[in-house]
Amino acid sequence: MTFGTLIWANLRRRKLRTLLTMASFGSALFLYGILRALHGALYGGVELASASRLVVINRVSLTQPLPQAYGEKIRRVPGVVAVTSANWFGGVYQDERNFFPQFAIEAETYRDMYPEFVIPDEQWQAFLRDRQGCVIGEATARRFGFQVGDRVVLRGTIFPGTWEFNVRAIYRGTRDLDDTTQFWFHREYLEERAGGWVRGMVGWYVVRVADPDRALEVARAIDARFANSPWETKTEPEQAFTASFVKQMGNVQFLILTVGAVVFATLLLVTGNTMAMAVRERTGELGVLKTLGFTDTNLLLLVEAEILVQALIGGGLGVLAAGAVVPGLSRAIPGMIFHLSLPEVVSGVLLALGVGGVAGLLPALSAARLSVAAALRRV
Amino acid sequence: MVRLDGQGQGLIQVRGLDKVYRRGSEVIHVLQGLNLDVDAGEFVAFMGPSGSGKTTLLNLLGGLDRPSAGRIIVDGVDITRLSNSELARWRARHVGFVFQTFNLIPVLTAFQNVELPLLLTRLSRAERRQRVEAALRLVGLADRMKHYPRELSGGQEQRVAIARAIVTDPTFLLCDEPTGDLDRRSAEEILDLLVALHREFGKTILLVTHDMRAAERAPVVLHLDKGVLVEARGGVGV
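^ inputs. structure came back:
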């Protein structure tokens, strides 16, 4: 027998209570995993946004276009090393629930702007050669089973009509949370088919600066360049631009933190109470252990170990269950990439151990401080 | 030899032992200036009415409680001066306890219950197994090692408790009403076992009981009344 045997024997004493305590840890850590993944899905783009990229939009609104001619002028602003542009397309693939973002891009410059997206050269060249070609992110390709060579038909909403594309390339991300749901095609094709106001106009520009530390300075210079023009610009770092989208949903971060804090506070109280009950029930036995020579520290560690084992098993299973469910969320909620990384899993398990440790502290201390003579009277 | 005059040099030396409990404004003197010397290898029974302080004395001798005044010296160590953790380690090494209600851990087998005090030692797993098996053989329960306490009779449980008490080969055994919860036959078996431990293995045993039949098995019987020890029977030296 070892101390581990003793701990395990004590946990098997009231199996239902042990299972329920583990389930408490499990459900809390499951929720933790889902909330972490949700946070990553919402704010991952913000965290991954490049510090060296700026986004230039119409000062009035993102929905208002900017002249294509601005591209060259922006390129001449000191500190700017590259410029590309895109338009929002807003097409529907078969059903409106099948959402994925579609951009009409400036093909010659777009790929270089996003080195985090990897596209095989021969596929990219095939895309450049085909005016009706498109590039699809691997998440969307996997979701709908698109393969290179397939024909994809979108129903235009902003630009009415049936739009046909040839899948020429599939891109993948180099980081877990890179957005691989996008669909790119040639802006020339859009201008040809749609004509009208979109001709010579772009939705937004993306700018790469030479020195990320001077990005704000460059942004101010770009906006100053177009001040008092018919199309004034609003330039901001990509991170701030991405964050502004998330902010439209309200303070989700605060909500996630609040829900998480309440769940863990409740877990702390429930498990603390459970362990206190377990210790109270075993007062006599703990007294016997003391008569046998177990020190105060031995008993403190014994009680703490019991709750830590429950936290480890319950919490570990909970966070692993969340890890198993998270990929399904990405499929269920189009346009959002849910991911739970190994460090997040590990931090979840450590969090469970921390909560368990704190919850068990008072019962463990009461076990350690137990008067042997008084405890034996309660046998 | 057992002495009550505080002049002996026995294995256990008790000097001027007081134990006072306070209940609100009421002060209860459970033990008053008690002196006792017990040599190694003695078997002493303490008798007395309920509330006479027998269990309190046993708790103090076993380092489970602290006296209000006085000293307890066991094998040259004044245990009243030990810290809590030192006292715990001292108990593990020197005292084997046998209780009225057996006090086995219900979720552990007989073998594991007996092995429990050995977890605090540096013995290897094989050495522990050897000792546990020897102790269980000694109490006649070699065939019940894998049984849980609920699968044993009261007498068998108490024998497991005795095996647990002797497995560390302690300096002395403290038995608090070890036959109190047993039927006549089982009680006799337990007393036979204690006598055998004393006679054949030279164990020092201090037994608290108010059962005359149990006390009769001890060569020396002391009577505790109103916190004072007096000789009832046996060879008490002066």
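The interface with chain B takes residues 1-3, 5-6, 9-10, 12-13, 284-285, 288-298, 371-373, 376, 379 of chain A (CB under 8 Å). Chain A has 14 helices and twelve strands.
thumbs up if we can close this ticket
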